[in-house]
Amino acid sequence: MSRITTTAAIASLALLMALPTGASTPGHLDGFVPAAARADGRFGSVWTTDLWIYQQGASVIHLWFNREDRDNLQVESVVVPLDEPVTVLYDVVGGLFGTEGVGSIHYLADGPVLVTSRTWTSADPAGTYGQTIPGIPVTDAAAPDGGQAGALRMFVDQRDGRRTNLGVANVSDVAATVAVEIFTADGAPAPGGSSFTLELAPYGMTQLNGVLHRLGPGERDGLIVRVGVTSAEGAVVAYTSTVDNATNDASYQQGFRFGY
Amino acid sequence: MKIKIATVLFASTLLTGLALAQGGGMMGPGGSGGAMGGAGMLTVADDGSLLVTEMSAMMGGPGSPGMGDDRAIVNIAPDGSERWRATFSDGWPMRPVTDGDLVVLALREDWWGGWDGSGDGGWHHGGGHGGGGGGGGTGPYANAVTLVGLDLATGSELWRTVVEGGMVSLPQFAPDGSRMYLTVRDFESEGTGLGGGPMHQGDAPGVFQLMSTTLVALGRDGTALWSFDLGTGGPGGGGGGP
């Protein structure tokens, strides 16, 4: 099976960025769930991911679990037949992939699919708290030369008692350098370590827990987290997950491109 | 007549249901089928009459009482009277285009396929669709679209052409009306893309390798004139006559 050339992949992404995609996620073949887990978190949380796949025309899907902070180029797929309109994979990291940890899920189907997931933790004394993490078509990724409009943005409030985790997943088969910049609501650079870079291996993923701690203590409204690819190649998706430290109630925000 | 569109690799737009700049979008799974199909899609013909799609099966939804199976193009005179109604038992008519006395529409057998039963089956699955409009496809989804030419004055059927592919664009007429063009986007359903077994992520084909886009030229009588695979820059698998 031939491998995508990076040049072709980037050219394709560049072409897509010129098209009026909007921010919708209609049926697509190739995408990423940027975060999935079977892992212990802070403040007693234990995160588990359930996955739903809806198909309209697909008969098979390949799924890869891209564990954080490593090169996942040689990770082997798990093939799932799509016999029904909806396929549900509870505890997908442990149940399907037979592993533990935090990572992203890459999927590639032979027909249009929509994928969504819920990553949840048990509540005290009963029930669960969870966040919906939809699958993102690779077409919505940020790619080089996209400029500021092509970078991914998320909005967060910095609050005592909450932690905000920033995740970035490389959706390409080459390493990517990513610039992360955090701005205050008026557009000025946020204080402290608000600007830094990340190096992502091919299909690598990283999650920076408590990323706003870099700004120093305080409460800040409307912070803008901007993620852009600065390397010549590579493409990424990004998210923030803000978790209430008292309850572990989490809210997820997908990075969006302001322009295409 | 059947136009075989080769499923070759093409670094084209990924499959996100993107609307085409011209023509409003693709018709088919994964495309913006809703933008092109459905009841009430309206086109104004050169003679001033109106061409409207009618699909009563759409109106109630799954299992609704009185859900019919009316799949038609209705021609309405400028005074609001009905001139003719062309019904189809073998497909769902998409929004028509016209040039002079010719009406052209795409007929999809599988459009809104999930609603012909009691549940949401999505697009017809498992090859049971018969290839879409008689195209004879064997893929897991409808993989052919039937183009139908109608006489604007009477609604009588003039010709049919089957185009293989998962999605087709709204046909566009040449300025002199002698021919029409459309693009066909096809999923790689014939096994060269995703094999049955696991694969290393680094070996995974790109989305653009799982689909192709081909430009097709048809004569005014539906005859295939030529096709051009936008990925390879070559013929898209040939044509043939009606």
Summarize the helices and strands and which ones pair or pack.
The complex is a heterodimer of chains A (260) and B (242).
Chain A: H1 6-17, E1 28-40, E2 46-55, E3 60-67, E4 78-81, E5 86-89, H2 92-96, E6 101-122, E7 128-134, E8 136-137, H3 147-150, E9 152-158, E10 162-170, E11 176-183, E12 195-200, E13 205-208, E14 220-229, E15 236-244, E16 250-254, E17 256-257
Antiparallel strand pairs in A: 1-2, 1-6, 1-8, 2-5, 2-6, 3-4, 3-6, 6-7, 9-14, 9-17, 10-13, 10-15, 11-12, 11-14, 15-16
Chain B: E1 2-3, E2 26-27, H1 33-36, E3 42-44, E4 50-55, H2 57-60, E5 71-76, E6 82-87, E7 92-93, E8 97-99, E9 102-108, E10 144-151, E11 157-164, E12 167-169, E13 172-173, E14 179-187, E15 211-219, E16 224-229, E17 234-235
Parallel strand pairs in B: 1-11
Antiparallel strand pairs in B: 2-12, 3-4, 4-5, 5-6, 7-9, 8-9, 9-10, 10-11, 12-14, 13-14, 14-15, 15-16, 16-17
Structure description:
The complex is a heterodimer of chains A (260) and B (242). With 260 residues, chain A is mainly β. In chain A, 8% of the residues lie in helices and 50% in strands. Chain A is globular, with a radius of gyration of 18 Å. Chain A starts with 5 loop residues before the first helix and ends with a strand. Chain B is mainly beta and 242 residues long. Helix content of chain B is 3%, strand content 35%. In chain B, the strands form three sheets. In chain B, strands 2, 12, 13, 14, 15, 16 and 17 form a seven-stranded antiparallel beta sheet that branches. The N terminus and C terminus of chain B are likely disordered. At the A-B interface, helix 1, strand 1, strand 3 and strand 6 of A face loops of B.
